[in-house]
Here is the input.
Amino acid sequence: MHGLAFDIAHLLAGGMVIVSFLLLYQDRVSALLNIFALHSLVLALAVGWQAHIQDAPHLYVTAVIALVFKAIIIPTALYRIVRRLGIHRTLEVVGGVGRDMLAGTGLVALAILVMLPVTATADPLAREDLAFALAVVLLGLLLMVVRHNAISLVIGFMSLENGLVLAAAGARGMPLAVEISIAFSVLIALIVIGVFLFRIRERFDSVDMQAMDAFREERRR
Amino acid sequence: MTLPLLLILPMLLLAAGVYAVIIARSPACSRQMYGVALAVSTVALMAALAYLFSGQAPETLRLPIGLPWLGAHFRLDPLAAFFLIVVNLGSAVASLFALGYGQHEKAPERVLPFYPAFLAGMNLVLLADDAFSFLFAWEFMSLSSWALVMAHHQDPANVRAGYLYLVMACFGTLALLLAFGLLAGPDGGYNFDAIRTGRITPELAALVLILALIGAGSKAGLVPLHVWLPLAHPAAPSHVSALMSGVMTKVAVYGFIRIIFDLLGEPVAWWWGGIVLALGGITAVLGVLYALMQHDLKRLLAYHTVENIGIIFIGLGLALAFQGNQMYASAALALTAALFHVLNHSLFKSLLFLGTGAVLTATGERDMEQLGGLIHPMPYTALAFLMGAAAISALPPLNGFVSEWLTFQAILISPELPQWLLKFLAPAVGALLALSAALAAACFVKAFGITFLGRPRSPVAAQARETDRYSLTAMFILAGLCLLAGILPGLVVDGLGPVVGQINGGAQLTAQHSQPWLTLVPIVDVKSTYNGLLVLLFMAISGSIAALLIHRLASNRVRRGPAWDCGFPDASPATQYTAGSFAQPIRRVFGSVVFQARERVTMPPPGDLRPAKLEVRMRDPIWELGYAPIAAAVVAISTRFNYLQYLTIRRYLSLVFGALVLLLLGMALWR
Here is the structure.
């Protein structure tokens, strides 16, 4: 393993974790979308670099898919949705950024603690990549849990999916067909989510999930 | 090459099932479908017979379907061939019966597509040679039979039976899945060949025994896993009941034999036999006691299936005990008895269910208390049913006697076992077996007497007609086979030789066909012999002489007199002895302990015109102690956690997230 190749791979995967933290910190909706685009861009770079050093041409396709769909089409589409919903200037009420950042740091530590011993026999590149990918997945889940806004939930979901792609690229296992079908399913998920956002808005005058809880059927305990 | 033929035949059946989906509503479909099933089963029967008696080596075949790295393995060996004979004989006769009986089906589109699929599933279970194909075919068989149980789903009782059956079938398959997982080991050698060569530790092997007992036992109807069987078997149309009771339970027995005797191989601990033996004994007695309390003809037969499965498992348990002590010659006797009883039970249980089907067609009644006197309108059905009843009651010269006699022979040599526990257990189980045989005879006196003798208890019974020729032919084929297997048991034992040898380290009973006068000599002729032919001859000669003497010395005419009415003129048929009154002494002796039967007589005071009432309350101990608490616990837990269904989306996400983090933490700390 060349020192430089490893370092760059490490840098890009680590970059994704950093960008995940940015996502967690950011409470403005439009800025959140920009950071998600950045997240996907770093993913595309990381996968492209993996393709280069693993000499695996099909990973280039993955990288291009990540770049086109996730870094360009999805953020643009979401941005337009946000515009039409008129919430692009909304500040989201986030309960304690410091708490979330601490929790996120703990999750990264957990990911490393879990992954490094498990993959002791794998080659170091894949090990680091998997640890980072798990961290990105966990941070995406955390984002989905702590936010109220439906757009943030979607972003959390998409960044989680980015973490999965990163893991797949590092593990040299996922066939191209699977990769492409996942990319398309994410795209379809986007369409469905978009439609739902408008429906929710129409019905409840808000995309804040907490507002929806008030309309729920009486709990049966 | 017999195996490819035997694999093509189930495919034909499946194709026929698909075809039936399309044309099920047309009136000719029923005939066509049962005709195809009859032809296919007959060919399969012939092929399996030819294979078993020609003594060829096992055939194997691998098809590139199923799991990509495993494929589907199939194998034909003597064990599979014997059970193929049982299955296809049963299905051929049931199909023949259904050529007539199926005409009365009200919802043929719910029966015809699943019937051939059910047959195909049973055949494929027997041919499967890897765990995946086995379980797939097993589940296919379960589900198609479930569909047949649900054929008359308008009746809420049938829906309940189907639900219980589905739950128990899933539970059993789960146990089998775990058993195969243990057998395959961490490397995942799911091919049966790999399992045979692989060795697992004695502790795991014991676990496999327990799981196999649960998995195969729940399908076969071992107590306490039998609860679904008396509900589900009678719910299906009668020819399907015959198949489920007579044949499908045998497929379950096959599964047990295949796993324990074949796949696990040699090393068995002696106490294994003890477990199986005790379970078999309890099953036999409880099954027949339940049967005695039943007045629904089909349910009575289904409980007798439980009893007979107990008898089969007594033989298997003895064989395990002998094998655990390296007494292979004795194990051969026990195995022969068990397999012989498998064949016998499939014959007479199918016969009895078909007879019940004929009664059901003629009267629309299954409740014995509404029947009676059917011997006059239905003499042939009555004769066939009587032969089946005599066979299941183990009366010589019919076949049931032979296999139970062989089981007793195996019990009688059990004092040679070195373990004291087994020395005591085997005779105790022998006593249970004797008790259950006697109670079975009592039960069939009741079933035949109340249904066919006496006077009709309801208008439908009075207007009954004899059933059609197809049904009669099917019943008499089975009755004839019961008689044949009873008077020529040596031939059956010889046919079973290679089967027993395969699962018993090569040891089998000595060849019987060379014995003089077709005598059955299981061990040595100074110990015990049985000759069904001589018994038949004696019965025929003494019976004819008695008839001759009576006709000569008394009167030659057939006389019909009025029924004795105890001095009350124009007695109503309701004053006859009923099924309930017949069972009352036995209910008092056994039922008051086992079922906590309580009787209460309500006698109105003089002058009150209300009728007196006799109420009998019985409780099912197994349901109340075993199943009701589980069901209550499941309901309680799900009610407790019901609120989980009404959380917000963020709560759900938090739960997923929390669970994931918790598991990861556990993993990080565990190492």
